[in-house]
Amino acid sequence: MPLDKAIIPELLLQSLTRLGFHEPTPVQAASLAAVESGKDVVALAPTGSGKTLAFGTGLIARLLRDRPKARRVENDGRGRHGKSGTHNKRRVETRIHAEDRLRAIVLCPTRELAQQVAADLAQAARGSVIKCGAVYGKSAIEPQRQLVASGLDIVVGTPGRLLELMNEGSLPTQAVLSVVVDEADRMVDMGFFPQVTKVLERIPATRQTLCFSATLPAHVEASIASIVREPVRVEVGKRNSAVAGDHKCYLIEDERKVALLLHLVKRRSLSGVVVYVRTRRRVGWVAQALRRNGISMEVMHGDRSQARRNEAISRFATGESNILVATDVVARGLHVPAIKIVVNYDAPMMPEDFVHRVGRSGHGEGRSSSISFIGAADSKRMRAAEELAGVKIEVTEVPDCSEFERQTSTPIPDQDTQRRHPKNKGGRRSQLDRAKVVPRATSRATGHHNRSEAAQAEPPQRKSKRRSRVDRSSPVGSKDGLGQQRGKQRNKPLSGQRPGGGVRPKPTS
Q1: 155-164, pLDDT tens digit by residue?
Q2: Cβ proximity of 407 and 441 under 8 Å
Q3: Is the same domain home to 227 and 118?
Q4: How many domains are there within the chain?
Q5: Which of 43, 117, 346, 453 has the smallest number of Cβ neighbours within 10 A?
Q6: Contact, 43 vs 31, CB < 8 A?
Q7: CATH number for position 157
Q8: What pairing do the DSSP bridges indicate for beta strands 71-75 and 208-213?
Q9: Which residues contact 481 (CB under 8 A, 6 or more apart)?
Q10: Is the whole-model pTM more than 0.70?
Q11: 292 and 424 belong to one structural domain
Q12: Could you give the CA distance from residue 333 to residue 349 in angstroms, rounded to a whole number?
């Protein structure tokens, strides 16, 4: 089915053809007419099905049709440098102000997704008068103020930065016709929905609201129902389904996950791998292990600056780094063809997160591929993810990765190291008891160093800080006696010495 020329303007059609889009995807074909006509839409489609252009094509087509209103402005007749002349006559001009030009706002849950959506829309609208820009947090706000003031038709941003610009009056909303909530389920799960509601309160009630997502749980659907009016519902494929592909898992303890990851990366020569880790601290642990073993990798999480996150994505996308270790900040909407396989180092907390994680590899070649490390506490979550996504996760035998495992042959401490010292009422062991505990051996994965066996066997002797006193047998006023003065005795007069004076000889009897 070719692109509908009756809905898409010729200029936009040429731009899409230049980008290689000749036929719309199912979600694009089902939602294009409703978006272009100004109706509310709630669309649910798998990851990688082209949801960005599903709302972007219809949105740009509508903005090209409904041009912003121009205002009459009287020219004072002054020249370029503010000087009046015979050739600079006073005349009336029609101009489009920036506050009248902004007619569409797209809300995204993450900064990377906002940048990518803005770039995709700008590329699709290339050659037309439509201008698009992105605003997001953790970046300087002044350049973004200037970007909005220069005149934009579409603003893509995160809810927090959009609210900040609205509160200070830098983002006018009186002419906004359409609002898009991209990755609507993530907005709710991350706690951004109250901010989304506040953004919508600043926009005219006659607006068009579009919600697009790959998953739509019941609690998210109830929240979305409060911001749309009689929406057109579009569902493509199985509800909450993941991209078809190969999915397998390893049943493994948490302390052996690093060794298994190193084995898969080094012995099987994997590249284009995104490793999803639950927390920022665990990202650092995994990254340190990979770095110590000579593996080129990048790190992404919420605490890193936007410039460093952009650099990490760029280095990974160009192939300079083979591994990207990240939290779920990368799991939404990013289109990076370099991603070939997804490793769930930690099981996703929500079943819907599995769909979004695995979908990253589906962007590359159309089929997703994932490996999951499953601990004893993760089995229920993975079963729920398997049921929600409608895929079969094959349990695979853990390979021999002993060369990368930590040496855990720690001798069992004796009873004295486990009991509480009788003189220590707070429960802390004495210095002798603490010295008897033998630490683990050096880890090949993390490279921590321990004390030698001799140092472990005997507790270190504590050096006394007290120094020797003055040798009273030394002659009064001798160099030895004066040289051994320490501390407060240095300022005290010796026997037979006047304060502030020299040594006075003893009287003879």
Answers
A1: 999 999 999 9
A2: yes
A3: yes
A4: 3
A5: 453
A6: yes
A7: 3.40.50.300
A8: unpaired
A9: 470, 471, 474, 475, 494
A10: no
A11: no
A12: 18
